[in-house]
Design a protein that fits this description.
Elements lengths: L3 H7 L1 H14 L6 H14 L3 E5 L2 H11 L7 E5 L5 H8 L3 E5 L13 H4 L4 E5 L10 H10 L3 E5 L7 E3 L5 E3 L6 E5 L13 E5 L2 H11 L3 E3 L2 E2 L10 H10 L3 H19 L5 E2 L14 E5 L4 H10 L29 H9 E4 L7 H12 L3
Parallel strand pairs: 2-3, 2-4, 4-5, 5-8
Antiparallel strand pairs: 1-9, 6-7, 8-9, 10-11, 12-13, 13-14
The structure holds pyridoxal-5'-phosphate.
Length: about 375
């Protein structure tokens, strides 16, 4: 699905040097590269605070802990997402309230939002799924009206840009109270292990987020609140410092693959190409087709026989997962999310794809029909 090796070889000298420098320094925990990377990312995104942490799941958990969400508080999110979004809601004994995504863009449907709000609702977690922003203007307006927090799960969309109706532009993850992201190797800005970060423009929240991520302490050995241990490794920060300057070019490379797939499948009677949110740029963490009157699983098998890897993101929505069949996760009726899980298929997309490989994938898809 991705070609991390070719990508590494293009920046190998710089990355190898950066890794060796950390080892030579022996500042493995909270070395200077962690702060340097956080500041570089702050500047890149135009956000006031970047709080590094161990992974994207921790980032979500730390965000919810810093907002003082308590057992029984309701958090509205989508079930059509990676499990991490809902996992931390479960861990903190919050109550998830799932709403539908939009059939064309796969992101939270703001039209379903107000009906889901109750007196217990505390936060909304839109997921910028597959690489483009959810309808943030609508979501933020509703959140403001009902006095709710917004946490953007930006694990798949770092670098996507959203334009508000007044022309103001903001980066994914920097519009709500808190944004969270992941540097898992296959994400758009991936390190060579686990990593994550939290974004906010709020000084007070930033301080709280840093405390939660650092054992609840501001002063060493003085634990004012219960926290967690979640740090970005110095070696990973050093690698990310090498990769961040390439992020825009990486997004462009992914967009160019998407444009090729679009051109090939735009008029296909059995395939729906991914729709673009007109207010957001798309960084194509995934290129996801929807099958129409076609056997998705047979298509996947056909492609596998041709040597083309594909993935189903996601085969089951979270509310249908075995581990989530309990009173905390009251199964609602989310017909569209369930339908999408049966009909979507994601094609390989990454920064190193050659025209030859892309054309082979396109021909392999066509030959199924
Ligand atoms: C990858 C991902 C996460 C979790 O990130 P990790 O670093 O793997 O913990 C959370 N949410 C979404 C939508 C993701 O795609």
């Amino acid at each position: 699905m991705v070609d991390l090796k070719s990508q590494y070889h293009k920046i190998k000298e710089e990355v190898d040097r950066a890794i060796i420098d950390v080892i030579e320094q022996t500042a493995f925990i909270q070395g200077p590269q962690v702060k340097q990377f956080s500041e570089a990312l702050q500047n890149h995104l135009g956000v006031k605070h970047v709080i590094p942490c161990a992974n994207g799941t921790d980032a979500l958990q730390i965000a919810m802990m810093a907002l003082d969400l308590k057992p029984g508080d309701e958090v509205i999110t989508t079930s059509y997402t990676y499990v991490a979004t809902c996992e931390v809601i479960a861990l903190l004994q919050l109550t998830p309230v799932f709403i539908e995504v939009k059939a064309d863009t796969f992101t939270m449907d703001p039209a379903c939002l107000e009906a889901a709000i109750t007196s217990k609702t505390k936060a909304i977690v839109p997921v910028h799924l597959y690489g483009q922003c959810a309808d943030m203007e609508e979501i933020l307006d509703i959140a403001k009206k009902h006095n709710l927090y917004v946490i953007e799960d930006t694990a798949q969309a770092i670098g996507a840009e959203y334009t508000f109706s007044d022309g103001r532009k903001e980066q994914a993850g920097c519009m709500g109270h808190i944004g969270t992201t992941s540097f898992f190797p296959s994400k758009n800005l991936g390190c060579y292990g686990d990593g994550g970060a939290i974004f906010t423009n709020d000084d007070e929240l930033a301080e709280k987020l840093r405390m939660v991520a650092n054992h609840g302490q501001k002063v060493k050995y003085h634990h004012d609140i219960v926290g967690v241990n979640s740090r970005l490794d110095t070696i990973q920060a050093a690698i990310l410092l090498c990769k961040l300057p390439h992020l825009n070019a990486y997004s462009d490379a992914r967009r160019s693959v998407a444009a090729g797939y679009d051109k090939a499948f735009a008029n296909h009677p059995n395939l729906q190409i991914p729709a673009r949110n007109p207010k957001s740029t798309h960084v194509f963490h995934q290129y996801t087709l929807t099958c129409i009157n076609a056997d998705r699983d047979a298509l996947q098998k056909h492609l596998q026989e041709k040597g083309v890897p594909t993935m189903i993101y996601y085969p089951l929505p979270v509310h249908k997962q075995k581990g989530y069949q309990n009173a905390q996760f009251e199964p609602g009726s989310l017909e569209l999310s369930e339908h999408l899980c049966k009909h979507v298929i994601s094609l390989p997309i990454h920064t190193e794809m050659t025209d030859d490989v892309m054309n082979y994938i396109i021909e392999s898809v066509r030959s199924f029909f």
